[in-house]
Amino acid sequence: MPQYAVSSDRLPALLQAMPKAELHIHIEGSLEPELIFALAQRNGVQLAYSSVEALRAAYAFTDLQSFLDIYYAGASVLLKEDDFHDMAWAYLTKAAAENVLHTELFFDPQTHTERGVSFETVIKGLSRACDRARAELGVDATLIMCFLRHLSEEDAIKTLEASLPWRDLFIGVGLDSSERGHPPEKFTQVFARCRELGLHVVAHAGEEGPAQYIINALDILKVERIDHGVRCVEDAALVKRLAAEGMPLTVCPLSNVKLCVFKTMADHNLKTLLDAGLKVTINSDDPAYFGGYLNQNFLETFAGLGLDADAAYTLARNSFEASFATDEAKAGWIARLDATFASFTAAA
Ligand code: ADE
Ligand code: ZN
């Protein structure tokens, strides 16, 4: 028996109106081509593309690496504190309009420090945008620093050291970039140190890499969430374990289709994961590159997989429960979620 009777024609409005959290968004992946060109002009950076249209036309990816090459090139226009602020502010205003109440933004400091931009410049710009979002938009925005897994653990340790003067400005660490050939255990020491420092720990695993990478992220890095994790279905015992532990998966449906993890949205395994009792959330990953922000991910996933209002409630609730916010904040957001569902059900 469905708990929430909402007709299919009103489901898109519910998906957009419902309060939600976004837990897997790379802020550099929110850089729209228009902003890339504006920042290139502002900073005198030469781009390999002649126009916004030419850049957008290059967004035809065949796998994760084909995307990452363009994503890192796009980030080359970010030089000054204001650039980082403006990028994050653009995302946060969109998030507010999509009823995102809480977000945990990934950022990749090594992408910038490698080019001579200081950690201080990056974190100050991003954190100023987060402060503004809390004050002006009512969006609770926090930061998670990611280590690039194609670089060495030594490089990650240096990055962690450089971040320590700003330890209070981010809540956790993650692991991203090229997954295949760069297993979680490559970062055992740095993650142990991060846990000692009281940072939250998450990692991309099972996006392109095998189910074993998910197991190693859990057992060796001791992560609190798995980013992506869709390849867990290749190991039935792992699926059971994830369900039993209530381990959140931050799934990114449009990203998975764009990067050819699944051929079409109808082929995506998100419904299988939900049906297996996993704590699934929906996220946008790199919205400027993958064809849509969070609500577009909800709309296309629900249309492609025929999901209903009960699934919408579960996914939105999971997004709050899986966040690193306080229990008090979570309870307040879930009360707002309940009120939205009550109003949609009453009006049915
Ligand atoms: N960095 C930005 N987006 C990513 C993704 N989908 N996987 C791994 N690293 C990333
Ligand atoms: Zn990601």
Q: What is the CATH homologous superfamily assignment? A: Metal-dependent hydrolases
Mean of residue pLDDT values: 97
Task: Please tally the helical runs, counting DSSP H or I stretches of 4 or more residues.
Answer: 17
Spatial extent as radius of gyration: 19 Å
What is the CATH topology assignment? TIM Barrel
Helix and strand succession? Answer: HEHHHHEHHEHEHEHEHEHHEHHHH
CATH class: Alpha Beta
Largest sheet: number of strands, sense, barrel closure: 8 strands, parallel
Helix content: 40-55%
Low-confidence stretches: none
Bound molecules: adenine, zinc ion
Number of strands: 8
As a percent range, the share of strand residues is 5-15%
Give the CATH architecture. Alpha-Beta Barrel
What does this structure look like?
Strand 6 (225-228), helix 11 (236-245) and strand 7 form a beta-alpha-beta unit. Helix content is 51%, strand content 14%. The protein has an eight-stranded parallel beta sheet with strand order 1-2-3-4-5-6-7-8. With 348 residues, the protein is of the alpha/beta class. It has a single domain, classed as TIM Barrel, CATH 3.20.20.140. The structure holds adenine (ADE) and zinc ion.
Write the layout of secondary structure elements.
Layout: H1 11-17, E1 20-26, H2 33-43, H3 52-57, H4 64-74, H5 81-97, E2 100-107, H6 109-113, H7 119-137, E3 140-148, H8 153-163, E4 172-176, H9 188-196, E5 200-205, H10 211-219, E6 225-228, H11 236-245, E7 248-251, H12 253-258, H13 270-275, E8 279-282, H14 287-290, H15 294-305, H16 309-321, H17 327-346
Parallel strand pairs: 1-2, 2-3, 3-4, 4-5, 5-6, 6-7, 7-8
Helix pairs in contact: 5-7, 8-9, 16-17
This protein binds adenine and zinc ion (ZN).
